Sequence to fold (164 residues):
Amino acid sequence: MQNAQPPEQVQAAFDDAVKAGQDRERQVNEGQAYANNVIPRASGAAARLMEEANGYRQRVISTAEGDSSRFEQILVEYSKAPDVTRNRMYLDTVQQILSGTSKVLIDQQGGNNLLYLPLDKLMQVESAAAQSSSGMKPQSIPEFSQEAGMRSRESFRSREREIR
Fold:
């Protein structure tokens, strides 16, 4: 019974049944390939997230321990000399804050003067001086003419005492 041929009336249904079986096997294989692709990626991403979380945990713990140790050291020094330690902490904080600024305004207590220190301009002049000493041409240095300085001094001197 190896050469069995179905009748022509059922040949189409027979072919459909064979194609359906092949489609089923193909879809099972595609699903298996998709699973083989997705599952390792997902498990790798999960492992990466776990490692990042462990690293973050260790970093937070280390930072907290370091801060605690630093606080204990400062406490010992503070108990020895409170004023010196307090002033030093203040100066360190001011230095840290002012290192990121380019302009400083200073208000004096009991005075009407408000000083303005254009640190950005001073730094440009300083860098330009360093460039000119190294042989490079400075880009732009604000220059004040001596004549303008003399005029402002004379106008200051010529004011009457009552105006001052």
Observations:
- The chain has two domains: 13-96, 103-159.
- The two ends are 128 Å apart (CA to CA).
- Residues 88 and 94 are 10 Å apart (CA to CA).
